[in-house]
């Protein structure tokens, strides 16, 4: 009997264990101290939704934004005019099929297209950037920050390349902070999933031990009350845990 119980428990742990270990911590670079304070919290009010694997995939996709901003800064430092930067970026991005670009990739293409067309017409770069209709909420946040950086540089005369480099570092720091937050929340989420399976495990163990828990729950008045109370408490626990996790995600800087 004890061997059977150990076998069942071990099987459940093997099934649940990989889900606990799917979220891998991404390195957080705490050495960056040169990020302008104006860019802090750039992405903090938008959330990546979905499971840990989907969230990790979205974070990897979002890393295209700091890479794009760094590339813009490099082109400017190489002596290319700001209006010609968009033409170079648009020409470089023509080779990737739209179906393989993903949501963020298509957002980047849309941003570059709007900025390039505005540059050809001699329009204000910041205004041209804000006309881009982007789908991902974090893409929209980066778009607004990029437009603000372009406007600040044009209004104050600050070197645009340096402003963009600071913005790229800020976006990278925000993505690293999101990765660290998701890693910290992976434990509570996994614990909630495991605890939600314990009632089913108890029913299975009761049947293995020769009792009839289903008959008691379904065939007696007290069983009905116990079943209703158990389902209610389980639902309340899951909702409470989800509320705590969502609160922690929204409160993250």
TrEMBL record:
Its main location: membrane. Keywords: Cell membrane, Membrane, Transmembrane, Transmembrane helix. The chain crosses the membrane at residues 214-240. It is a multi-pass membrane protein. One of its GO terms (cellular component) is plasma membrane. It comes from the Bacteria. Residues 69-205 form the Type II secretion system protein GspF domain. It is found in: Cell membrane. It holds the Pfam family T2SSF. This is Type II secretion system F family protein.
């Amino acid at each position: 009997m004890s061997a059977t119980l150990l076998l069942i428990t071990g099987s459940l742990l093997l099934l649940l264990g990989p889900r606990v270990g799917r979220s891998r911590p991404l390195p957080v670079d705490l050495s960056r101290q040169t990020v302008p304070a104006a860019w802090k919290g750039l992405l903090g009010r938008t959330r990546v939704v979905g499971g840990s694997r989907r969230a990790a995939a979205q974070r990897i996709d979002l890393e295209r934004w700091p890479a794009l901003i760094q590339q813009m800064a490099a082109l400017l430092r190489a002596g290319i005019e700001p209006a010609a930067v968009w033409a170079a970026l648009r020409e470089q991005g023509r080779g990737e099929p739209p179906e393989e670009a993903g949501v963020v990739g298509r957002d980047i293409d849309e941003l570059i297209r709007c900025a390039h067309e505005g540059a050809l017409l001699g329009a204000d770069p910041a205004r041209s950037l804000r006309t881009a209709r982007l789908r991902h909420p974090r893409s929209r946040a980066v778009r607004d920050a990029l437009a603000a950086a372009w406007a600040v540089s044009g209004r104050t005369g600050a070197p645009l390349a340096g402003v963009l480099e600071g913005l790229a570092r800020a976006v990278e720091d925000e993505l690293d902070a999101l990765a660290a937050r998701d890693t910290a929340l992976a434990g509570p989420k996994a614990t909630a999933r495991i605890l939600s399976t314990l009632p089913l495990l108890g029913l299975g163990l009761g049947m293995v031990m020769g009792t009839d828990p289903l008959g008691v729950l379904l065939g007696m008045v007290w069983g009905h009350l116990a079943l209703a109370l158990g389902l209610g408490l389980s639902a309340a626990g899951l909702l409470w845990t989800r509320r705590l996790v969502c609160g922690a995600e929204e409160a993250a800087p």
